[in-house]
Write a structure and sequence with these properties.
The chain is α+β, with helices and mostly antiparallel strands. The chain has helices at residues 3-29, 32-58, 73-101, 109-136, 140-169, 174-201, 208-221, 254-271, and strands at 227-236, 239-247, 275-282, 292-293. It is built from eight helices and four strands; from the N terminus they run αααααααββαββ. A four-stranded mixed beta sheet has the order 3-2-1-4, with helices on one face. GO terms for molecular function: cadmium ion transmembrane transporter activity; ferrous iron transmembrane transporter activity; zinc efflux antiporter activity.
Length: 295
């Protein structure tokens, strides 16, 4: 089974375990803040399921209807995650407002906080795996899931400390206040996830450091050509699409030009894993005297 798919399935399984623990902690205590933590875990489970579906679609090979592949499916998952985070935040804010109006004492706070802490430790370990593997496998869905899970861990720690303070001091209003802060935190997280995913859907260019690498490889490997111009890139999941125009001397043969292209393509694929390259050969009079200079 594909490694990305294995991790996506693991996220779903772990999400269900953590959700069960946090729901148990909320039911034991009646805490609005722990309710907010459980609501965020519901989002985690739903988005893990969406990521799993998206990863399966993204792994499909190119076909007649999708000649460039299905890589962008993962971005739809990340956008969906951002939207669901916003919905969960609004539900939490509603519950927090009810808590402000009628603060309630907490039941079995020590046991509930211990269970919630155990769930948070599981989340912390898994979010590290997701972010690390998401970057390694160049999977936007896994990395977005990991970043959201990290915000969940941070907010859970804040909730645990805050609820403990509410119990010790007797300030029951701290409970709904913490829930409201959690909601605002995950709203910010949802905005960042959605913004980054939209960049992928809008065919944003490769990062500057990757573009510099691409231009450097072309300059180094295009010996026999005159210049390369109109270098364009776009990133879709694990694939980086690269296309540019390569100007060759007017007396070059088709075979000679093809050899230069083969050399550039091989070097680019070594430097940029998952690269798909299109090179347009042009005669000498098409030179623009700009772009990438051949070393």
């Amino acid at each position: 089974m594909n490694r990305t798919l294995q991790i996506a399935i693991g996220s779903l399984m772990l999400g269900l375990v953590v959700l069960a623990l946090k729901l148990l902690a909320w039911r034991m205590t009646g805490s609005v803040a722990l309710y907010s933590d459980a609501m965020e875990s519901i989002v985690n489970v739903a988005t893990a399921l969406a990521a799993l579906v998206a990863v399966r679609i993204a792994l499909r090979p190119a076909d007649a209807n999708h000649p460039y592949g299905h890589h962008k499916a993962e971005y739809f998952s990340a956008v969906m995650e951002g939207v669901m985070i916003v919905v969960a935040a609004l539900l939490i804010l509603h519950k927090a407002w009810q808590g402000f109006l009628a603060p309630q004492p907490l039941d079995a706070p020590v046991e509930g906080l211990a269970i919630n802490a155990a769930a948070s430790v599981l989340n912390a370990l898994w979010c590290w795996v997701l972010i690390r593997q998401g970057r390694k496998l160049r999977s936007p869905a896994l990395e977005a899931d990991g970043r959201h899970l990290f915000t969940d861990v941070v907010s859970s720690l804040g909730v645990i400390v805050g609820v403990a303070l509410a119990v010790v001091t007797g300030w029951l209003v701290l409970d709904p206040l913490l829930a409201a802060l959690v909601a605002l935190n995950i709203l910010w997280s949802g905005w960042k996830v959605t913004k980054e995913s939209m960049s992928g859907l809008m065919d944003e260019a490769a990062p500057d450091h990757m573009l510099a690498t691409i231009r450097g490889v072309i300059s180094r490997e295009a010996i026999g050509a005159l210049e390369a111009h109109d270098v364009r890139t776009r990133v879709a999941g694990r694939v980086t699409f690269i296309d540019f125009h390569l100007v060759v001397p007017g007396d070059s043969t088709v075979e000679a030009a093809h050899c230069i292209c083969d050399r550039i393509e091989a070097a680019l694929k070594d430097e940029v894993p998952g690269a798909q390259i299109t090179i347009h050969i042009e005669p000498e009079h098409k030179a623009k005297h700009c772009g990438v200079v051949v070393v």
